[in-house]
# Entry
Amino acid sequence: MSATPVFAANWKMHHGPAATRDFFRDFLDASADSLDDQLFFFVPTVSLAAARRALAGRPRIRLGVQNVFWEPAGAYTGEISVPMASAAGAVAALVGHSERRHVFGETVEETVKKCRAVLECGLQVVLCVGETLQQRRADQAEATVTAQLLPVLEAVGGRAAGRWMIAYEPVWAIGTGETATPEDAQQMHEHVYGLLDEPLKRTPILYGGSVKPGNVASLLECRRIDGVLVGGASLDPASFATLCAAGA
Ligand code: PGA
# Structure
């Protein structure tokens, strides 16, 4: 357990600019600013400007994007580059979220390019890894996570010290209401920690997958669980404020 766990919200494709303004009006009322250094919001890119305005009085809360393309500019219709995300107020980016990998077919090679681009631009990476239920049942959970993580570590590892986080999110726990048991989560976090070389040993390892106000404390009590990445339960301001307070 970390003394200062990270609480990261992944809004996915929810909350456009108006809903973002309303969210933060209520969330800021409901949350003490003592946790601000520990909070990240991965909002839809089109909502970054609204989020930035809403957070003008609480600038220690950090904003991020949910995906980027690795080239800085060019003929890539529909994509957003890291410099663009940065200029719009993002200081971090999710890479390799399970929905990117499984819905949009993102490959490990692509996650490597994205991580490199994010780090080269000075932003923080949150690299998401995790196995499917089939892989877990076939006793391939650790092998899957290793295969997602090692190529990134080899490509950008040491250079990234201090500027990235890893989020372990078992695919079968995302948005399903099923959570890994604290024991299973801790075991995978120990495995991930074991893959990190010395300069990266302090990389925060977050857990994600149906984290809620009622289970956050038991997860954060575990060794090597340094924070949480929260989807569904981050969409309601009162509930997410409760979750952060429960885990703090
Ligand atoms: P969930 O999503 O909390 O709704 O399971 C987590 C995530 O996808 O990051």
User: Anything to note?
Assistant: The first helix runs from residue 17 to 30. The mean pLDDT is 95. The radius of gyration is 17 Å.
